[in-house]
Amino acid sequence: MTFGAPWGLLALLALPVLVAAYFLRRKQPPRVVSALFLWRTPDLKAEAGPRFERFSRERSLLLESLAVLFATLFLADVHCGQRTQRQHVVVVVDGGLSMRAKVDGSSAAERVKTAVAALARDEHAGVMTIIESGPRPTMLAGPQLEVDRALAALEAWSPAQPAHDVTAALVMAKGSTSSTGQRVFFFTDGPLPEATTVPAEVQARSVGRVADNVALLSAQRHDEGGAATVTVRVGNFSERSREVPVTFETRGDASHLERVTLEPGATAVVRAGFKTTTPVTVSLPDDALTEDGQVTLLPSPLALVKVGFLEGLDAAAKSAVERFVAIAPSVQEATDAQLTFGPVGSTARVTLGATGATHGFVGPFFSLKGHPVFDDVQLGGVVWTAGDNQPGRPLLSMGQTVLVSETDEGVLHFNLDVAKSNVQRTVAWPVLLGNVLRLARASTPGVPRRQLMLGEDVALVTTPDAKWVLRGPGGRERPVLGVGAVTLPPLPEPGRWVLEKNGTAVDELLVLPLDPRESDLRTRGPWQVDATAAPSLASLAGGAPRAWWPVLVMLALVLADFWLTARARRPV
Q1: Is the dihedral of CA 146, 151, 156, 162 positive or negative?
Q2: From CA 44, how far away is CA 328, in angstroms rounded?
Q3: Is cis: bond before 143, omega within 30 of 0?
């Protein structure tokens, strides 16, 4: 037998009062008269005050004492057998990457696990709800999971989230409480930003420790012609100047070392080139947070685009495109082309030519703002000769004449007579066709960007009639819903993720454990914020439903006592 609200046992103090009331009774002495008419002026005032005497209503006292006892059991929230006390404890843990930083032999995440286990013991927890904060809060255990299972789930927890606002997780935890005013326990490794709103029910505590750290802040890789160029930015989050060795390693090749001197709080860019098509590993010396000191960059060559030409294309237009294809990287002329150029009216993805009467135009031209075809395209000094308007929405126009248009199917129409124009002889031409190639690459199934920072959205390209899945570290799986260009929320774990189509690997990407805000450990340290809201009686009594059977027994005893008393007063 256990009690959810032990303070309710104070109701037992009513028993001595009840027994004393039965001993201490008022007695009216009998008055003997020979006839009723002689009792003309009765004295209603008692001649004798309260006195102790033996009572004769033992059964009534027993029933009332039992009623007080069962009322006490209800107030104390008694549970018997399987109905044991189930105090509900709600915990929020900071999921930031900085929780992995090891200082004095232990990380903040390990100290949080120990603190949560102690909290469960001190609060006599029966069930727990554990939530990890992040850009999208995650429930690690619960809702209201048994303590042993909740702590086991917390043991497998490995924080790896970017810097984020914890307000969403605290609000989620507040909604998971069993009663109004119940406390929420929040564990982190450093003070919260001033703009963070902490609910009054939150009891916050930091287990972090101040430490120096040198970190990789960003990493990029560019591959072209079998050569890789790796660029990283290194930051010094310490109080003294540091000379940092940056090591670059590739498979089957000697390592390359670069040294950079950084003042406190300063950053520097380090670049290295390799003749390789294998992954490149960049590492710094181990310090408090080892995760942000090493990254492996996958090869990121440009996707090959196969270009083809349909019959009927004007010779001048075909020649201008062929000259670009000859010098453009990762472009190949083939019969099974995914990007085709053809004359007006053909089935090509890009049509070139002008029909009807042609007219030459000199800028300024009016382009659709923000369309990727015209990124960095400078049309100053261009002579554009066009004919009749082509179908689709206008992308580039001059007055009523549409120079470039795009259909709903993504077909581009260039209303351009190349032989009578000078566009192909200006710097705008290679940039314009380069943007067309970039759009073609973006439609190739796979991963356009293979290196992602922590917390970045994932851009993918998929095709219909197939099942697409992202598989990551630890057997994690993220189904891909949608066709074409798809953007997914940030992946929950850094590391290598493989894109599969119907169970076959198609492409891969890396989520790099890099976030400058999480790498700065100088602001970490112990602090505590107490909850300002007073807990309600329901929260003090625990999260389990209160047992109502003592109330039913108490009512039955009161009714039995009433019946017994009324029966004793009934005239014979």
Answers
A1: positive
A2: 121
A3: yes
Tell me the chain's radius of gyration from C-alpha atoms. Answer: 40
- Kindly report the length of the chain: 572
From residue 499, give the alpha-carbon distance in Å to each of 233, 465, 535, 560.
Answer: 28, 16, 49, 74
Domains of the chain: 2-27+49-83+547-569 (no CATH), 87-210+523-540 (3.40.50.410), 213-299+514-519 (2.60.40.10), 305-442 (no CATH), 451-512 (2.60.40)
- Cα separation, 75 vs 93, in Å, equals 34
State the distance between the two ends of the chain, measured CA to CA, in whole angstroms. 46
Cα separation, 177 vs 539, in Å, equals 9
Of 421, 435, 517, whose CA–CA distance to 218 is shortest? 517
Q: Peptide bond before 364: cis, by omega within 30 degrees of 0? A: yes
C-beta separation of 246 from 282 below 8 A: yes
Question: Per-residue pLDDT tens for 69-108?
Answer: 888 888 887 766 544 446 889 999 999 999 999 998 899 9
Looking up tokens 């004798």, which residue turns up?
A: 48
Give buried/exposed letters for 474-494 (b at 16+ CB in 10 A, else e).
Answer: eeeebebeeeeeeeeebbbbb
pLDDT in tens, 237-254: 998 999 999 999 988 766
| CA–CA gap between residue 266 and residue 284 (Å, rounded) | 16
Are the C-beta atoms of 405 and 413 separated by less than 8 Å? Answer: yes
